[in-house]
Design a protein that fits this description.
single chain, 134 residues, alpha/beta, Nucleotidyltransferase, domain 5, six-stranded mixed β-sheet, 6 strands, globular
């Protein structure tokens, strides 16, 4: 069973229902991978697909109040910190137990993945596939 990293990040935030969480990772090249989640009684519910965008563009999308989890908050704190509460990545990172629990819940709900075809989801094209700029 595949569990998206950004989703696993959202689940490590101990937040009250009604809170918005932004899971965001440094994608290098002045970009972040991010997704927004609404915290509900059952846990985080995805609001957006995984995105690849500039930290300033993400900051403009953040609702207020919002909690950012992931290493992007440390790398791009100047852009994101003015718009959200930043949690330290050292204490709020993807945990194996969270990933196992999410995978087990999906299996119990009848979801299944063919391990032979399970692949990572890449949000942006690899550099080799980007058009050459002149």
């Amino acid at each position: 069973m595949g569990v998206p990293t950004l989703e696993a990040l959202a689940w490590v935030v101990d937040a009250e229902p009604g809170t918005t969480v932004c899971a965001a990772l440094d994608a290098r090249k002045r970009e972040v991978y991010a997704a927004l989640f609404a915290v509900e009684a059952e846990g985080p519910r995805r609001l957006t697909p995984d995105l690849a965008l500039a930290p300033e563009a993400l900051a403009a999308r953040l609702p207020r109040p919002c909690t950012v989890v992931g290493d992007a908050g440390e790398v791009y704190g100047e852009a994101l910190g003015a718009h959200a509460r930043l949690l330290p990545f050292a204490t709020h990172h993807p945990r194996g137990g969270v990933i196992a629990r999410l995978g087990a819940a999906r299996l119990a709900a009848g979801e299944a993945a063919n391990l032979g075809t399970l692949e990572p989801v890449y949000v942006r094209l690899p550099d080799a596939e980007l058009p050459r700029s002149r």
